[in-house]
Write a structure and sequence with these properties.
The protein is mostly helical. The chain folds into two domains: 1-113, no CATH class; 128-256, no CATH class. 70% of the residues lie in helices and 4% in strands. The protein contains 14 helices and three strands. It has helices at 3-19, 24-36, 41-54, 82-93, 96-108, 114-127, 132-144, 148-161, 168-179, 186-194, 197-201, 203-214, 221-236, 241-254; strands at 39-40, 68-71, 74-77. Strand 2 (68-71) and strand 3 form a beta hairpin. Helix 1 runs parallel beside helix 4 (82-93) and helix 10 runs parallel beside helix 13 (221-236).
Length: 256
């Protein structure tokens, strides 16, 4: 069976599981995993416990029926297509009573350490495929105005969004809007994102924006300078059209 067939089968499996009307604790387990896929099992248990307390759930903890597996000390979905479909089903089937505590919990993951943070950002990027407006309002903007760890999470989420051709332009637009106000703390999140996944897909836009931010002297200037320097070091170590474009553009901007 090809990948398209496998993906369709995974989607059908997730939809069928939700059709069984699983308990709230089962739903919370798969919802948590959608934002923590591939996390070490003890860490996943800790974060799932926090979500359960937010939702006032207690008792025996099932593990999402056939959707979740633990292997090699990590917790993940049994099939690659499960996470995306779980997020779609959560958006389609559940309302405020689930999503209000779930949003609060996901936002808090930014400060729970790098391993948790990066997985949460990846989950938020995956959620954007179903509700990009909510992702921007409830996660990206909140994180971008928050602590240093939250701003890094926002940058990671924008970078992960670039892996999706339909979401990448939105990620760039958000980063450029944040960068347009260098005096705002959001600009530091933009500087990190523009030196990450955004630079791979939109090298010219990223270099120009980082150059402008670095020249402002605002809070984001130092971060922008570091991001730009890292990009150019990486480009200098490669011999391809994109790397040469980055190097030439940066040189032209310095000489303006």
């Amino acid at each position: 069976m090809g990948s398209a067939g496998g993906s369709a089968a995974a989607e059908e499996e997730v939809a069928a599981w939700f059709d069984t009307k699983p308990s709230m604790r089962e739903v919370l387990a798969v919802a948590a995993l959608a934002f923590l896929d591939g996390l070490a099992e003890p860490d996943f248990e800790v974060q799932l416990g926090r979500l359960e307390r937010l939702c006032h759930e207690s008792g025996r903890r099932p593990y999402g029926g056939s959707l979740i597996a633990a292997s090699g000390g990590l917790v993940g979905f049994r099939a690659p297509g499960h996470r995306a479909r779980v997020l779609g089903e959560l958006v389609a089937r559940y309302g405020f009573w689930l999503w209000q505590p779930l949003r609060e919990w996901v936002r808090s993951l930014a400060g729970a350490g790098p391993e948790v943070q990066v997985r949460a950002a990846e989950g938020v990027a995956a959620l954007a495929a179903y509700s990009v407006k909510e992702v921007r309002e409830e996660f990206l903007e909140v994180w971008a105005r928050g602590t240093a760890a939250e701003r890094v999470a926002a940058a990671h989420a924008l970078s992960y969004m670039c892996a999706d051709e339909t979401l990448a332009p939105t990620a760039l637009r958000v980063a450029l809007e944040w960068a347009a106000d260098p005096g705002h703390v959001r600009a530091t999140a933009a500087a990190v994102a523009l030196g990450g996944g955004l630079a791979l897909r939109f090298p010219a836009d990223s270099v120009r924006s980082l150059h402008r931010l670095g020249a402002t002297g605002g809070p984001a200037a130092k971060v922008a300078g570091q991001s730009l320097a890292l990009l150019l070091r990486q480009a200098g170590g490669r011999d391809d059209d994109r790397s040469r474009e980055l190097t030439a553009l940066a040189a032209a901007l310095r000489n303006e």
